[in-house]
Specification:
Order of helices and strands: HHHEEEEHEEEEHHH
CATH superfamily of the largest domain: Nucleoside Triphosphate Pyrophosphohydrolase
Number of strands: 8
CATH architecture of the largest domain: Alpha-Beta Complex
Oligomer: single chain
Strand content: 15-25%
Helix content: 25-40%
Radius of gyration: 18 Å
Distance between the termini: 40 Å
CATH topology of the largest domain: Nucleoside Triphosphate Pyrophosphohydrolase
Structural class: alpha+beta
Length: about 200
C-alpha cells in the first residue's frame, strides 16, 4: 500500500471516529494535520497493527438486476457480500476473487466481466477492519449454476450456509452497515453503465 493510499485511509478513518456515536452525517475535518499528525512510518505501523483488510466482491448480474450475497453459518444476521481476509502477499483483488470462489463456487475467471470498479475502502469500527471491495458487472447466466461453499472454518463446517441473489433494495436491509455504505456509489456506477449501453444502441 503506497503512502498516499495509507494517508487517505487514515484520514477517512479519522472522520469515522469523529462521527462514531454522533448521528449519521460524517463531519468534515477542517485541518487534519492539526488534529492528527502522522508520518509515513507511524501510518504504516498503525495500519498493520490495528486494521485487518478484508476483500470482497459486489457481483451484479445485468440479466436479473440482482446482486450476490451469502450468509455466515451459525450467524443470526450474518448476510454479506462474499469476502474474507487476504493472505500474505496477496493483492486485494486476488483475495476477493479467491473468496468469491471459496464461498459461492463462482469462478470469476469464467465470468463475462462487463465492467470492474475498485470501490473506496470502508470501515468496521468494532472489528477494526477495512473492507476493500470491488464491483463486478456481468451478464453471465447463473440460472443453472451450483452455488456452494468449499471454505471451512476451524471447527470443520462450511463458513457459508446460504447463498442467494437479491435486489439492491433487499440487500440494503440484510448486509452489514459498512457494506451498505458502498451501495450509493454502486447505484451511481450502475446508472452510468446503463446510460452507456443506452447511448451505444
Amino acid at each position: 500500500m503506497d503512502w498516499n493510499t495509507s494517508l487517505k485511509i487514515i484520514k477517512n478513518q479519522y472522520k469515522v471516529w469523529l462521527n462514531f456515536g454522533s448521528g449519521n452525517s460524517i463531519r468534515t475535518v477542517p485541518s487534519f494535520t492539526q488534529h492528527f499528525c502522522i508520518d509515513k512510518f507511524r501510518t504504516d505501523r498503525l495500519l498493520k497493527k490495528a486494521m485487518k483488510i478484508t476483500c470482497g466482491i459486489y457481483l451484479y448480474n445485468t440479466l436479473t438486476q440482482n446482486i450476490l450475497i451469502c450468509h455466515a453459518t451459525r450467524s443470526k444476521n450474518g448476510w454479506s457480500i462474499p469476502k474474507g481476509v487476504r493472505e500474505e502477499k496477496e493483492l486485494p483483488f486476488q483475495a476477493a476473487v479467491r473468496e468469491l470462489l471459496e464461498e459461492t463456487n463462482v469462478d470469476l475467471n469464467k465470468v463475462n466481466i462487463l465492467q470492474r470498479h475498485d470501490l473506496p475502502p470502508v470501515y468496521y469500527i468494532k472489528q477494526k477492519k477495512i473492507l476493500q471491495s470491488f464491483l463486478i458487472i456481468t451478464d453471465t447466466d447463473f440460472e443453472n449454476a451450483v452455488l456452494s461453499c468449499t471454505g471451512l472454518v476451524s471447527a470443520g463446517y462450511p463458513e457459508i450456509d446460504k447463498i442467494c441473489w437479491v435486489t439492491m433494495d433487499t440487500m440494503k436491509t440484510m448486509v452489514h452497515p459498512s457494506q451498505i455504505e458502498n451501495i450509493p456509489r454502486i447505484e451511481n456506477l450502475l446508472n452510468q453503465y446503463y446510460q452507456s449501453v443506452k447511448n451505444s444502441d
